[in-house]
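With this grant's support, we have settled on a layout for protein records. A representative record follows, to show the layout.
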Amino acid sequence: MKSPFLELRKFVAPEFVFGVGARHLISRYLLNFGARKVMLVSDDVLYDKTPWVRELEENLKSAGIEYVLFLQVSPNPRSKEVMAGAALFNKEQCKGIVAFGGGSVMDCAKGIGIVCANGGNIVDFEGVDKIPHAMPLLVCLPTTSGSASEVSQFSIILNEAKKCKIAIVSKAVVPDTALLDPEVTATMDPYLTACSGMDALTHAIEAFVSNASSPLTDVHAKEAIRLIWGALPRVAADPKDLIARAEMMLGSLQAGLAFSNAILGATHAMAHSLGGFFDLAHGECNAILLGPVVEYNYSAEPEKFAEIGDIIGCDVKGKDAAIAGSELCRHIEAFRRRVGVGKTLTELGISRSDIAKLVGAALQDACMATNPKSMVDKDVTAVYEQAL
């Protein structure tokens, strides 16, 4: 008898604490791990425009924990930034890493840990299960509700030399602990909130229809879609709505648990190529590409896409796949515009002549392997063109 419930599966997740005040537990966890000196990785925006980093510094100081501050992290973290962070970590003889920020900060922190434990250059570790030695202690405190890097097996780094993003996928990069406090997301600007929320929604949808999905991941993916679809418009309307912020962070977490174990699909593969070559925001790229990719993939998983339709209020059950895919695409497109992500690729400065140089990297991206429907050059080209 064939059933997904009988298949052998594994599920990887770190310890995590969720709720208002979770961030205040940082010193307790570091002391329990025996980390008396850590590198605190964040970014200039968080440091200069919010109270959160300085508050965390005071927390560490009051507990007698030494720290070294590293803020040189770009929105798309560069390999040179990872290498600079690793050099500082080694020079200061740190024993662990605290990542306090969005996906870029957490991915950079993971890269720093990889290089500190294994040597070499971060670009050497591209691919799946290429990390031989475990990283130093890593505790993540996310300040956005999008990447879920705090619970995932992924680290995405920009290789400046090749103008492309590399995906590092390994259980070796799963953080030791994640402290998820929705209160720190309240200072996100509206556009970052919308883009990071669309990133989380993309995680959930792609994980649910991934060819590596399972009952273990589906439960998280579906709940993530439900939470994000309900909460993101409320946060867009009222950025100070803490309950909606908490629902968004929980939705992002659920999506992360799903995609970290089921992996992703063509939306992410194409967004990595697009963001790497043109240095664009990852969540924004996902938001623009999600609808067209859903339309392309619909015929491969009509039952699952119809279930997504039920969750988000788009009844496509029993309809022809081409019609249903188009309707679901339009529904998602309307949603992204409603929450504030209204641009097209053309408005981001991408032209039809740019597409040819994006296709190869997208097809080679690790996320393409789990897309539910295979793609060749012309298919990827057509989806990019639809998003112009």
